[in-house]
Amino acid sequence: MKKIGFLSFGHWTPSPHSATRSAQDVLLQSIDLAVAAEELGADGAYFRVHHFARQLSSPFPLLAAVGAKTRRIEIGTGVIDMRYENPLYMAEDAGAADLISGGRLQLGLSRGSPEQVIEGYRYFGFDPRAGESDADMGRRHTEALLDVLRGEGFAKPNPQPMFPNPPGLLRLEPFSEGLRERIWWGSGSNATAVWAAEQGMNLQSSTLKDDETGEPFHVQQAQQIRAYRAAWAAAGHQRAPRVSVSRSIFALMNDTDRAYFGRGGQDQDSVGFLDEKTRAIFGRSYAAEPDRLIKMLAEDEGIAEADTLLLTIPNQLGVDYCAHVIDSILTHVAPALGWR
Known about the structure:
Layout: E1 3-8, H1 23-40, E2 44-47, H2 59-69, E3 74-77, E4 80-81, H3 87-101, E5 105-110, H4 134-148, E6 183-186, H5 190-199, E7 202-205, E8 208-210, H6 217-235, E9 243-247, E10 249-251, H7 255-261, E11 270-273, E12 279-282, E13 286-288, H8 290-297, H9 301-305, E14 308-312, H10 319-332
């Protein structure tokens, strides 16, 4: 059994061929799609975060709105670039969104990926410390967030406050019990997956990771997940961790599906460079009739190792079509693979 949700990058463009021509379109349709996915029986609605781009950026207003409109579905991110974040302010936003949803927030974080502008985090007021890389800064921000999400007091109260204080040091409010255990780390390498396990975070692994062995993407991803679980066990955490993977999967059910995704071209892994030092492997997409799709997915070792699968959806094709994509997998593919 697997939890199955969707992951939206929230693209929008002022084009007559796009169903999302403005930021408002993306935000409102994201809420509608989460509601539709819940009605279809999906388990999660996740959203990517990018800055300086025509995509979803500030996640917490959207997460709170989705939480208010739904009752069961998990609500999350995949992922928030922690180089840009004030950890304390983020903890307040996350606590509020989690309380509105009734404790359904699944917050995916990462040190960040190549962005639209050079060192964009500097425009947000964040600079790495001396001897620190931007990735180090993102992990430092993450550790600060994890610390305050424990809910322990750390701030000295004013002896003459505007409002009465509880005794002792003060914590951030609103505090949402259990949110600390629903923090995920988007890892692009085996080493950062091990670090995430040591920190007690769940693991998100996408369709991109460092090419560390030259093997097929799904094999390397499975190895990454096993390394993460071994590190989790070694750290002695008292709960079971969760692991998600994302995939582009399309069941070709009709002529529209075949027109959009039936022409191939992305059915093999590809290799490229994220920067001058980092060789990365990009996982393939899957698009076929359900019977063929089932056979192909059964051989994906990365999916087999995960407890949660996030379907990347083409949000610019609109809510109805994306709901159809999700429903096709839930109805015609997942049961045959034992995912439902």
